[in-house]
Amino acid sequence: MAAASAENAADSHEVIRVRGARENNLNGVDVDIPKRRLTVFTGVSGSGKSSLVFGTIAAESRRLINETYPTFVQQFMAQIGRPDVDALENISPAIIVDQERMGANARSTVGTATDVHAMLRVLFSRIGQPFVGSPQAFSFNVPSVSGAGEIMIAVGGEEGRAERRSFQVTGGMCPDCEGLGEVSDIDIDELVDRSKSLNDGAIRVPGYSADGWMVRGYSESGLLDPDKPIADYSDTELEDFLYKEPTKVKIQSINMTFEGLVPRVTKSMLQKDRESLQPHVRAFVERAVKFMPCPACGGTRLNDGARSARIAGVNIADAAAMQITDLADWLRSIDDPSVEPLLAGLRATVQSFIDIGLGYLSLDRSSGTLSGGEAQRTKMIRHLGSSLTDVTYVFDEPTAGLHPHDIQRMNDLLRGLRDKGNTVLVVEHKPEVIEVADHVIDLGPGAGRNGGRIQFTGSVAELRVSGTLTGRHLDHRAQLKPAVRTASGILEIRGATANNLKSVDVDIPLGTLTVVTGVAGSGKSSLIHGSLAGRDGVVVVDQSPIRGNRRSSPATYTGLLDPIRSAFAKANGVKPALFSANSQGACPACKGLGVIVTKLGITASVETECDVCEGSGFSPDVLQYTLDGRTIAEVLALSATEAAEALPPRVAGGVLSRLIDVGLGYITLGQALSTLSGGERQRLKLAISMATSGSVYILDEPTTGLHLADVDNLLALLDRLVDAGNSVIVIEHHQAVMAHADHIIDIGPGAGRDGGRVVFEGTPADLVAAGGTLTAEHLGRYVGTRAGSER
Which strands make up the sheet holding 513-517, listed edge to edge? Predict the structure, then answer.
């Protein structure tokens, strides 16, 4: 008995034990997850996969790690609350590799984000000729400073010697653009209306309302006449208003800093990554500012000294600008024993980019311009060569943005991490990834309140015969259309040269469902977004994240809350503002947040549900008013489907019907946007865009985050859009969407320099019959044609 007990105890440590998990919609989940295995979590979007993997297991791992630091360190760290779970045992340190876009820092590039640029800087400081200094001398983030130092340099190869060389301590930053690689020309007339005074709203910059503190810093500074039109300013007044250096002023006994409008806008908007700006701010920046490569450094971000050192005729800017496949070839051509260990590490890391399907990128590519899938794979680079073992890697749809041709390489990488003794947890919908799992955990049966329960655990073979929604759809295949729609006209693209496009001419048929395909980096987005976005009548639903604060919800994001508040106000004879938790209706105890935040240190805090409003965010007085027997809190707790049945159609019927159409009928109106998965956020944006008056819809990988069963619903939605007289253009890798298209435009044949051409135009059936492209090969295999099977 003792031996058996010991064996059971040992076995218990080979699984992550989750008991009573209730995070978000999880319904008291109990599950054992095998350690040192590749486990894939499946289920419809919103079923609770992310709540279990990210919100419970990964969150608790990170919380426990943070608690190992000394208290004085913890107070400087973001605090992670304990997940709502009864017990969580045998977890190991978790490394999360998600699809969040990489930083909003305009100085961050693919090279700096992966440390490859740091290794290149060391390489050039060691063997670059002429010698210009330490690795700092090649950094565009380090300005030139005074000082000097010495460094020992190996010269002459294996039989050579070490020399002590002195150098000036200096950075590589271009002084003209301050390492940003571009300069800007600001249109002052877009910043200010010269015919108006400050008090009349002369400043046209977003966030600078006439009665706000930003403008009061100018109007009440004592340096400017707030009632004088800008056009009547003296030269001194105009110079102060636009360009004055930071100066202390006092406004209503408060010390403030007066700074010219141009440098202030430059710091707050222009020096940030433009992709990270809110849409209305980005639109203003694009309107007001003309960006161009810095003439001093040619856009390389580096000063003359950094660009002067060369290895085999190549300087560090040239190396960073190379397509990574070319950079790998160049690194292999360098033969210098004195830096061989460094070269080996560089070659291995660069090869990882190629192995992971990112060989078409360059190191100088701004990290903020990467898609969610590209960002996730770039983050993976840091871990592929890691010596860590027995850790838990957590991935969120690692195949997002990948052509079927590239998925096998991703599977190899996931298995490689597992084979090093790690636990690999993957949230994924693609059958190709589910197939390689050691263990599958399926959640459901539905989404939202209808999900949050374990439907199946076991092997892939057992999943197939389980009868669950995922099991039934695992081998489901869409069929090629027997007939396609006839075009009602064409949308011309002529001479497209954005990024890697080779002067592309193509006609996109109107009145049809057109799918644009090709491997990642082939030029699909460059062709469609670069050529069509901004044209009249074109509505774009892209992958940019939804922005909002902790008070944002589907009701606020869609504008649904306004008619609901108006209906409550009309029914009760009071003002609409009373039914806003952000305004007059806010609970006085929690200020409308629904939780009480207790500060424990500089950044440490604890959140507890507000006892006064019981988490609703509304004051008790507001909850006395009802609409058809429900309080405002009860209405916001309804799902979209429930609200469509409970609320009068005149209130919000249009918005609710669109939410249901895109498969979001289960989300509640008042839940925080931060609780929505990536697929849910994408479809929420689509629901809003469907209300826009437009005849051409561009969708960028709308199957992201969608379960196999939900893809059929998406196809039905796309059909309804086209049948209503619209044209739909979809950038997509999912074979079911390709098979359902009326027209396919295949870009390739490869990625980066090897792409940028139209390699096929026509129907899906013609693509499969013609063969000759990677898309044709995989689509043929997917639909089970002889042509696909033979390849």
Answer: 538-541, 696-700, 727-731, 513-517, 743-748, 757-762
* Range among 99-108, 212-221, 715-724 rated most confident: 715-724
pLDDT surpasses 70 at 160 = no
Tokens of 240: 């102060």
Strand intervals (E) in 588-662:
595-599, 605-609
Say yes or no to pLDDT of 76 above 80: no
Residue that wins the pLDDT comparison between 526 and 790: 526
666 vs 83: CA distance, rounded Å: 23
Alpha-carbon distance of 61 to 50, in angstroms, equals 15
**Total length of the chain:** 791
What's CA 119's distance to the chain center, in Å?
27
Helix (H) or strand (E) holding 714: helix 708-723
Nearest alpha carbon to residue 123 among 303, 299, 305, 314: 314
Which two tokens mark 575? 């003002």
- Tens-place pLDDT, residues 381-406: 877 777 788 999 999 888 888 889 88
Averaged confidence pLDDT in the chain: 86
More confident residue, 56 or 397: 56
* CA distance linking residue 138 with residue 319, whole number of Å: 12
Question: Which pLDDT value is given to residue 220?
Answer: 83
Instruction: Give the Cα separation of 605 and 668 in Å (integer).
Output: 27
Question: Distance between CA 740 and CA 548 in Å, rounded?
Answer: 35
- Which amino acid is located at 338 in the chain? S
* C-alpha separations of 775 from 57, 374, 749 in Å: 37, 20, 9
Antiparallel, parallel or unpaired: β 392-396 and 423-427? parallel
Q: What pLDDT, on a 0 to 100 scale, did the predictor assign at position 6?
A: 35
Of 453 and 657, which is predicted with more confidence? Answer: 453
CB 263 within 8 A of CB 156: no
The structure tokens listed for 558 are: 């869609």
- For residue 405, what pLDDT is reported? 86
Kindly indicate the confidence band of residue 787, based on its pLDDT and cuts at 50, 70 and 90.
Answer: very low
448/161: higher pLDDT: 448
Q: pLDDT band for 622, please (50, 70, 90 cuts).
A: very high
The number of angstroms, rounded, from the C-alpha of 610 to the middle of its chain's C-alpha atoms is 32
**Encoding tokens for residue 576?**
């609409």
> What are the CA-CA distances from residue 462 to residues 443, 470, 476 (Å)?
15, 12, 16
- Neighbouring CB atoms inside 10 A of 588's CB total 12
Relative to beta strand 727-731, strand 696-700 is parallel
The two three-digit tokens of residue 689, written as one number: 């865009």
Is there a contact between 311 and 320 (Cβ–Cβ < 8 Å)? no
Class of residue 768 by CB neighbours under 10 A (exposed 0-12, middle 13-18, buried 19+)? buried
Is residue 451 within 8 Å of 48, Cβ to Cβ? yes
Three-class DSSP category at 685: helix
Q: Which residues pair with 97 in a beta bridge?
A: 395
Write the pLDDT tens digit of every residue in 195-209. Answer: 999 999 899 888 887
Give the helix, strand, coil percentages of the chain, each rounded to 5. Answer: 40, 20, 40
Torsion of CA 104, 108, 110, 116, to 10 degrees: -150
Strand 392-396, strand 94-97: pairing: parallel
Spatial separation of the C-alpha atoms in residues 572 and 291, rounded to whole Å: 53
What is the number of alpha carbons within 13 Å of residue 755 lying toward its C-beta?
Answer: 25
Read off the pLDDT of each residue in 222-248 and give the average, rounded to a whole number: 90
pLDDT band, residue 10 (cuts 50/70/90): very low
The contacts of residue 338 (CB under 8 Å, 6+ apart) are 126, 127, 154, 155, 157, 158, 160
Q: Which residues pair with 337 in a beta bridge?
A: none
pTM over 0.90: no
